[in-house]
Each structure stands twice: as C-alpha cells, then as structure tokens.
Amino acid sequence: MYKLLSKLVMYRIEDKDSIIVRLADIIRDYDKMSAVTGNAINEGNVTETESGIYSKNTSPEELRDRIFVEVRRLLEIATSYAFDKNLWQDYLAFTIMMQENPFALTCERKAPVDGSAGGFALSDMNIFYKLFHYDFGRIEEGLGIDTFSIITDYKAISKREQLFNRNVSEKVRELSTALAGAADGAEMLGKVTEFYEKYGVGMFGMNRAFRIRHDEGKDIEFIPIRNTTHVLLDDLVGYELQKKKLRDNTEAFVAGKPANNCLLFGDSGTGKSTSIKAVINEYYPKGLRMIELYKHEMRDLATVISMIKNRNYRFIIYMDDLSFEDFEVEYKYLKAVIEGGLEARPDNVLIYATSNRRHLIREVWSDNNDVDLDKHSSDTLQEKMSLVNRFGITIGYMNPNRKEFEEIVRTLASRHPEITMDMEQLLAEANKWEVSHGGFSGRTAQQFVDYILGGC
User: Is 182's pLDDT higher than 50?
Assistant: First the structure.
C-alpha cells in the first residue's frame, strides 16, 4: 500500500494523519518486521539488521494496536456518513470525492481536461483500482486478526437521518458502487469524471449549507451544516405572493440569468427564515449552495466571496435576523460588497437576508429632527436607508389575521392523522393559545399543533 501511495500525483494525500497514510505506515512496518524475522512473526522487538532494515520497538502486538486505532477511526467516519457493506471502498470513494485537485475542479466546471492532467489522473486511478481491491489477507494472517474482513463486509448500525450526513452518504455509496464495479483504472476514471460533472467535488460539492470559522491568525474555514431542516416552500401555509417572488428570483439565479439580492422583512414568526431554508432544499440539486453569515462576521464577507467566486455553484449568502443599531458600522461592509466597491459582485453570489426591520438600521427621531446637531441630517438618513435600497427585491411577511391564522392551524393539523380533535374545538383551542403565546403567526400555529401532538 505504501508503495502505491508514493506513486500518486494528482491525488497525492498530504495529510500524514489520514487513515490511509497511517495504514500504509503500519503495513510498511509489518513488512520490515517480516523481513527481519523471515516471515516468522515473533513477540520481540525488531532491531536493525545487516541489510539496513530498521523498525525499532515494532512488535505484532504494537502493530495490532495501531491497526485497531485506525479501524476505529474508520468506523467513526462510517457512522457519521452511514457507510455500508465495504467500509474500505466507501472510505476510498470518500477520499476521491473530497479532494479538490486541478483535475477534479476542471471536471466540476465541465471544461476540457488537458493531456497532462488527464494522464496523471489516469495513472492515479490505476493505483486506486489496486487500492480498491487491496488484499489485507496477508497482514491478517500474519497478525492473527480478521479486522479487515469485518469492515469489508459491514452492516451500518443506523440509518436514521439525524445521525448522519445524508447528502454525503448517498453520494459516497453511489460512487463506491460504481468504482467497485469498474473493470480497470480507465473505467474508474470515467466514473469519477461523470461524478464530478454531476455533483462537483469536495466540501461544496457534497454539502448544501455552511457556516464560517475564522480563528485569530488563521484563514477562514468553511464548516458544513450537516443536517439542515427539511422544509419546502409548499410546507409554508399562505404567503403565496411572497413565495412566488422568492422562487422566481432563485430560479433565475440558478439558471444563470440576472437575479437580485433579496430582503425578507416583517413580523417575527411569519416564515421568513423558513422560506430561506426551503430555498436551499429545493434548489440544491441544481447547484445552489448557502453560506450562513452572522453580523459579527461581516468583515469577512469580501474574503468569503473571493473564495467562492470561481466555483461552479451558485451561492446564497444568508443573513438571518439582520439589523443594526445606530452606533454599529458593520452595515458599511455589506453596502460595499453588495454594490459600490471597485470589484463587482460575482455572478454566482447573491445575498438573502431576513429582518424584523424594514430599513435594517435603527432609526431615531433625531434622524428627522431639525434640532439635530448634524447640519446635514438628511444625508445621515439617506446613508442609513441606502443599505436596504441595495437589495433589488424586498418581500414583506406580515402577521396573519384571525381567519388566516385559523387556516394555517387547519392545514398544519391536517398533516397529522393522529390529531382527531373536532376541527371546531381545535380552532377554539388555537385561539386561546395565541392569546398567551405571541399572537397570530405561523410560528404560534406550529407551536400549538406541536402542543396538541404532544398530548396525542
């Protein structure tokens, strides 16, 4: 295995702590120990020989322990992504689909691959073909273990959605099955190329939503959000005009047509955030990705955009519950990025924000008061209002009236056959509930239905 890994070029694995690299090191040490003992494994430490082979403090027990550590790590990854059947092949498929090398990125863009890149990729796939069908029997027999036999014929412990990243899991299994059935490295290369063109590569290809982490002194890091809320726009009761405007703009965006930044504003609990979450669920298969950014991360906005502008995806930067106090200046970073800086916003990036404030920035009486010490108070007001004007589309979400609230309750309850309460009684209880739970809103209706379900 270590000899195979040393020949990789395009798919060279730089992480020395990766499972495959550590397993290769173990097999190297095993071979050294076997050479010293003449393939008669003993329980003593192996030392330097006349041939120069050296493996200090290596023993069968120590090698077994190291193997068990790596297998445990593999099982942890397998549990996170629900690998099944052949965990070794799933792991190799996962390695291939997550490595963002020049060949993979070119395939993702569906651009022609030049001869050198294609040649290196083919050579690497010939190596991965051998790794896919690697025979661990020799080391199992020598060390008296059956660990690898177990993980190459494995049954996943659980397939419950909340326990693993379903997006990645399904793709790993698809690629793993395809590669396992390939006749040679050339056929594997064709399968990998098709996969990259269909899904993309790396973290952005496999996940739909992300947050960022920017530790002091380090580069910005994208953190996948493994389990997003599975909700669709049709699940949101009412607000048909609002949903249509949002859907039309998003569909234009993913189709590569001109589209606008969107601001969803209005009362709390009316479905603004739910609408945004539904958008990523509906349009993820068409190449849409979402990056959630908090207000205190606004300084990183320009850098984030520069990191994603050349990827073959459409990115929505999502800012939830966005608002600024009059003393906060972070909104100026947002203004510059949306429109106004020297560098144009890339075509593959939009900003969607939700807010309870129509104009995002807190306004006070002094903004319109002639007594204000600022002689150019109108300029101050215009500066604050210019931010919201840079969102091409603003969509209002207002609290429903009683009739609309009851329709929301009726629709939500109808989705649960276990609720058998008479509808007239159910609506009467819902009206009592809203009085002490925030008034008429979609959120209040959902909370009421959840309360009723809890008693069923």
Answer: yes
